[in-house]
């Protein structure tokens, strides 16, 4: 079953087209990757899904409901949460305060339970709960960004370049955590340039080039041949 469906999406910045006639779907429980070279429009797609960028035309369906006209805040409350490129944590706040910000829209009684859940997934965050977030390492900051997003209780987690600027060992750790998050029932749509990281981890891949969808399939179907990597991924 498709949790997310994007139909004939067109997005532009002024007169400059960023995404052209893009259609794709993300099934419930999957980890799906949106890949392509710099400038392909991947981040724009995530920002449009979460409601930060408004499309010129096209539609977005979430759990069968047309959310194209919904505000970004309403989409978060419905369960669509973005971890942006560069993490964008609040560096002057503590780890605990950053996590609390992630739950800003919630008024339920499960808040304490979810803190413990996030601390179980990321034990280092519990150890550093009262530490200023800006003093964390890059990998720890990425964990905090993930934890903050989870505090919003997402059904669909959007990740923009979660490996950016991290050492290879840390990247493998982060992606193992993403796999563990998906096993809890959260669907993941991520943007990534390093295909060597995701080839064995994701269920399905969409390849974009200059705002258009060029290829799609399983990683084994898509990532075959150096000609494909050079043509669409800048490899």
Descriptive overview:
- The protein is of the alpha/beta class and 235 residues long.
- It has a domain at 1-79 and 156-161 and 189-235: P-loop containing nucleotide triphosphate hydrolases (Rossmann fold, 3-Layer(aba) Sandwich), CATH 3.40.50.
- The chain contains 10 helices and 10 strands.
- The protein has a 6-stranded mixed beta sheet, sandwiched between helices.
- Strand 4 (57-62) and strand 5 (65-66) form a beta hairpin.
- The longest helix is centred in the C-terminal third of the chain and has 16 residues, at 168-183.
- The mean pLDDT is 91.
What characteristics describe this protein?
235 residues, alpha/beta, Rossmann fold, six-stranded mixed sheet, four-stranded antiparallel sheet, 10 helices, 10 strands, 27% strand, globular
């Amino acid at each position: 079953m498709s949790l997310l469906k994007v139909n004939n999406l067109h997005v532009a910045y002024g007169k400059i087209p960023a995404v052209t006639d893009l259609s794709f779907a993300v099934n419930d429980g999957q980890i799906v990757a949106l890949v392509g070279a710099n400038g392909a429009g991947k981040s724009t797609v995530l920002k449009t899904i979460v409601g930060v960028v408004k499309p010129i035309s096209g539609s977005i369906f979430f759990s069968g409901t047309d959310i194209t006209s919904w505000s970004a805040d309403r989409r978060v409350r419905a369960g669509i949460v973005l971890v942006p490129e560069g993490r964008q944590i609040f560096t002057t706040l503590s780890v605990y305060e950053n996590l609390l910000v992630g739950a800003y829209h919630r008024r339920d009684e499960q808040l304490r339970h979810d803190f413990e859940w996030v601390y179980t997934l990321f034990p280092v965050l519990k150890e550093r709960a009262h530490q200023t977030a800006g003093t964390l390492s890059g990998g720890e900051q990425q964990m905090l960004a993930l934890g903050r997003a989870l505090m919003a209780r997402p059904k669909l987690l959007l990740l923009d370049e979660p490996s950016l600027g991290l050492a290879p060992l840390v990247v493998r750790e982060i992606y193992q955590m993403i796999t563990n998050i998906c096993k809890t029932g959260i669907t993941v749509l991520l943007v990534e340039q390093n295909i060597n990281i995701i080839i064995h981890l994701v269920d399905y891949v969409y390849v974009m080039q200059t705002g258009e969808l060029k290829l799609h399939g399983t990683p084994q179907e898509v990532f075959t041949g150096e000609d494909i990597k050079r043509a669409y991924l800048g490899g």
